[in-house]
């Protein structure tokens, strides 16, 4: 495991300078955040939904998890009901999930309360129908995320897996490949980057990802002085939530 020793997030004030990132704290607190397709959404401990820019702009509705990407804006509430944002209104669809991810090429993935894995193919995602049929994916995961680099997940033991041969109309894929390391959660960005946090709250980036090697080669630890519970990345910005829910937007300087 390699380390970026110069990447240090200084612990005082609201703006931070580091070797690879310049970070700014956004006012407010969130428990979960997701960036994709040029937008960022999040939810707080009360289930309130926010569009995140340089501030938090509340969106009507109540969710426990929200995701944005090429598949649109999706979320689930505390009853595991799945919703899609259409014409600025939340429309429920058939299916019960605890976590969803909209980062795939207009297909949706997610996991249920018992860690079963599901996906919704592109043609169902792009329709306006509320009656849809999720496809069951073999295995068990507690967190699942897709992007242009493919689909990645973590199971209940924090083991990391990559799903092979996933496509918009064949979202089930073919088989799992275990990847070295252990993470609490991870996110795959629209543009193919993979970031995650481990049980200790350390943030990591997967390096060496390419078309010929979609699982990459090494996890690089981002040596911030803080610890985190959630991370997401899109369009050159790394978004991090501290364990207290503080929000950081970090601009990649490379």
Automatic annotation (TrEMBL):
Pfam families attached to this UniProt entry: Tectonin (PF19193)
Domain of life: Eukaryota
Protein name: Lectin
Signal peptide: 1-19
Family: Belongs to the tectonin family.
Matching InterPro entries: Beta-propeller_rpt_TECPR, Tectonin_beta-prop
Keywords: Lectin, Signal
Organism: Ranitomeya imitator (mimic poison frog)
């Amino acid at each position: 495991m390699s380390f970026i020793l110069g990447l240090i997030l200084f612990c005082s004030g609201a703006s931070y300078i580091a070797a690879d990132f310049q970070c700014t704290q956004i006012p407010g607190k969130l428990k979960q955040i997701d960036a994709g397709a040029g937008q960022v959404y999040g939810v707080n401990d009360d289930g309130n939904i926010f569009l995140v820019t340089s501030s938090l702009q509340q969106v009507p509705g109540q969710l426990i998890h929200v995701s944005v990407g090429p598949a649109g804006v999706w979320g689930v509430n505390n009853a595991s009901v799945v919703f899609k944002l259409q014409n600025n209104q939340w429309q429920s669809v058939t299916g019960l999930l605890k976590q969803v991810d909209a980062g795939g090429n207009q297909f949706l993935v997610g996991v249920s309360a018992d860690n079963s894995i599901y996906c919704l193919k592109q043609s169902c995602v792009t329709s306006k129908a509320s009656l849809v049929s999720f496809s069951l994916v073999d295995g068990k995961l507690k967190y699942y995320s897709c992007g242009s680099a493919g689909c990645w997940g973590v199971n209940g033991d924090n083991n990391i897996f990559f799903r092979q041969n996933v496509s918009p109309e064949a979202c089930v894929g073919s088989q799992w490949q275990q990847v070295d390391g252990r993470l609490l959660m991870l996110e795959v960005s629209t543009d193919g980057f993979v970031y995650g946090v481990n049980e200790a709250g350390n943030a990591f980036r997967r390096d060496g990802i390419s078309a010929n090697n979609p699982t990459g080669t090494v996890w690089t630890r981002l040596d911030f002085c803080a610890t985190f519970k959630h991370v997401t990345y899109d369009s050159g910005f790394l978004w991090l939530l501290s364990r207290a829910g503080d929000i950081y937007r970090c601009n990649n300087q490379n």
